[in-house]
Recover the amino acids of this structure.
């Protein structure tokens, strides 16, 4: 059974940093791209970042480019999102999602975690 | 930046057919994916690569593509299909992903 468990969310002040983690199990982690998708309260889904199976291809939404860094550790079956210079508009539920293939961004996601909530407020 | 456009809402009676469209300039080059999201739940993939249906998804869900528009069709809509539906694709070079704004399907 595929499982994706996000952690690391919480309340953080504007301008500060936070690191999200996603622990994956139930599939061959290093065969698939992984993504972060967020959803602000009462709003739609927003694609945040994606990383290919071997970290060779990485993409970011314009809204987070230069502030967020995605990474993965295939030995630990884990995905990460380092979030710096956080803003109020980054407040959202952050989902970790498993790609349907090896390529980031273009192949959709077939499994999703339950999300971790990030609140940016003073 | 690249955008996908969906209607905000669609309403149908039970047993009728619901069609949800998604438009974007790069759709002729990149596949589209459709997700169903019910309140308080994570999204569920219902269509991949424009028209393929994952295992476990009912046959009443289908997808099609024509030029810059893709369409999710739900035939014989049931009350349990009431949810938000999102299309997803990538920019023309496949560098980043994008979601449509979402469509709220109401079953009357």
């Amino acid at each position: 059974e595929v499982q994706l468990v996000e952690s690391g969310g919480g309340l953080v002040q504007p301008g500060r940093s936070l690191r999200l983690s996603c622990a994956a199990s139930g599939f061959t982690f290093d065969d698939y791209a992984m993504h972060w998708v967020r959803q602000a309260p009462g709003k739609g889904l927003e694609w945040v970042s994606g990383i290919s199976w071997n970290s060779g291809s990485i993409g970011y939404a314009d809204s987070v480019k230069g502030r967020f860094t995605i990474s993965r550790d295939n030995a630990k079956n884990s995905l990460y999102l380092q979030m710096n210079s956080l803003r109020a508009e980054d407040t959202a539920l952050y989902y970790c999602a498993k790609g349907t293939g090896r390529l980031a961004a273009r192949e959709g996601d077939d499994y999703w975690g339950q999300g971790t909530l990030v609140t940016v407020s003073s | 930046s690249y955008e996908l456009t969906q209607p905000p809402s669609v309403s149908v009676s039970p047993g009728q057919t619901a069609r949800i469209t998604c438009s974007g300039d790069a759709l002729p080059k990149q596949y589209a994916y459709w997700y169903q999201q019910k309140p308080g739940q994570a999204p569920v993939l219902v269509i991949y690569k424009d028209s393929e249906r994952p295992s476990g998804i009912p046959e009443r869900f289908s997808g099609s593509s024509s030029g810059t528009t893709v369409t999710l069709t739900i035939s014989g809509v049931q009350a349990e299909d009431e949810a938000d539906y999102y299309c997803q694709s990538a920019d023309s070079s496949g560098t980043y992903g994008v979601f449509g704004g979402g469509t709220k399907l109401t079953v009357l």
About this structure: Residues 5 and 23 of chain B are 5 Å apart (CA to CA). Chain B has a mean pLDDT of 97. Strands of chain B lie at 9-12, 18-23, 33-37, 44-47, 61-66, 69-74, 83-90, 97-99, 103-107.
